[in-house]
Each structure stands twice: as C-alpha cells, then as structure tokens.
Model the fold of this input.
Amino acid sequence: MKMFVYSMREYDELPMFEKYAKQYGVEFDYCTEFPGPDNYHLAKGYDALSILTTPTPASMIDVMKDYGIKVISTRTIGYDHVDVKHAHEVGMGVCNVTYDPAAVADYTIMLMLIACRKMRYIMDKANVQDYTLKGKIGKEISKSTVGVIGTGRIGKTVIKHLTGFGCKIYAYDIYESDEVRQYAEYVDLDTLYANSDIITLHAPAFDSNYHMIDEAAFEKMRDGVIFINCARGQLVDTTALIRNLTNGKVGFAALDVIEKELGIYYRDLSGTIIDNPEMHILRSFYNVFFSPHTAFYTEEAVANMVENSIIGALAYLNGEDHKFIVKQN
Done:
C-alpha cells in the first residue's frame, strides 16, 4: 500500500509513521499542510489518504478518486468532517481510528477538578498578584454527583476512574452497559439533568443529536451546574450555553471542543482575527475554561492513531471486514 499523509506533524507523528510503515510494509510520503486545491496533486498515484479533522467534501473526494485514491483514513475517532455518503457513492472507503480511552477520560476528570476548584479565576488573579481568597472557594468533587452522557469506551472509562473519588454517578446512554451498572446508575436524561452537580458529554455527533444540550436541557439542570464537553461541539447549542452562563444557571463550563472549530484548532493563528463570535464571547467569561481539542493528546494516543490509520486502510484495501472501516448507512 502507498499512503499519502496530509497534516503531518513532524515533531510527533512522523517518527510513528516511520515505525509503523516499516512494520506493516507500507510506503508513505507526506506534507505538513492541510489538504487543499493547491496540494491535492501530491496524492496522485497513492492508494490511501491519511488526514486529520480536515473538511473533506464531495469536491475533494472526487479529485482524489480521479487521482486513484481508494480509501480515506482519518486519524481521529470522529469522521463527521468527511462526506462519507459521497465517498461510498463513488466507491471509496472511509476509515477512522480508536485510541486508549484513558487519554480523554483522565483529561475530562482534570477539567472537572479545574472547574470544582475555580482554577481559571485563581490563576487569572494570581497573574496580577491578587492572592486574596475572595471568590475562590471551591467544592469537593468527592461530594458531587456526576452525570455522564454517553457510556461508550470513553464515558465508561470516565465512570470507572471517577469511582476512586467516591462520587455518586448517574449515566445515560441509548445502549446500556452491564459493566457500567457496577459503578453508576442509569437514569433518563431529565433525572440526570435535575440531580447532577457536574455533567460531562461523551456522545458521538449525529444529525439526530445535534444541539441535544439546548435551552430546554439547561433549564432542567441544577443552578450552578458544572458543564464539561470533551466530545463534539455540535452537541451543544452555543447560544444557549452563553445565555445560561450569563444568568448563572451554568456555574462553570470547561470546553475542549466548540462549534465551528474546523479550520481553527490545530493551526497557528497568532495575530489572526478568528471568525467565531461565540468563541470570543465564551473566552470572556472568568468561569469558562478552554482547551483546543487536546484531550486526546498523549504519546500513547498518537501512536494508536497513526498505527490504526494504517491498519484500517490496509484492511479496506485487502477486502477485510474491520472495526475501523466506516460502514455505509
């Protein structure tokens, strides 16, 4: 297999590609830029593409199809940035990856602790040498009730790791897990909203759950709720989140993802005016903590993403049925 890699990070991904390409007998080349009309031609003559969270519309897929590309492998769990339907229509495969869920799970718990202890406010004040205690009193996570929405690999790991803190845990998922029942109580969403001090999202993004956390959902939550999102930005109505931060319903929001982040995160935009007004508003709140979609980012996860990107593409080209191959709807 010949694979062309876009958006290669030479400082962490390249050594992994060199290792696993040799292990699996793959020939690869790369560029550090995101794919675009100016560099599509670089992929001509290759069998597979490896991409990150790059918008991959029908127009790009058609060009790649003409160049001989047979499969697009995204080095991410989510694949909503790829027009999967069109890829399948033109006979092109799409693959995604998995990685150790502990990376995102532990990051999620870190955000909970940051929120509980008001670290954004404490550090902002410390940076101007205000070392008073006023407004900095926190709450203990062990005395909190945590609601986990989505109990797949990551949500399940969050729940298992939280048990060490002694939290009461509620869970919600369309597909319930017997393993999760050992640590948490499954409830309906209304019950979870009404009884959770902390709510964390770990659901995949589909058209059917777009803006599942909307004004109506926030209204059902406890006053001062801590809200965590390490899943997908489009699960949350950002306008409703801003309104509920303003009126105090949401006491703290820790966001590793936001709506309309494609084209922003993973780029150096120093000195650039970013066209995302909601992002600027959220950043103005002292009780909002932002990170740029980095919950996944560990040495172990990067290795998993690179290796699994290769494994998925090879499986597709070999006609194998594999969990990394995105099935047609």
Remarks:
- The domain at 2-99+298-317 is CATH 3.40.50.720 (Rossmann fold).
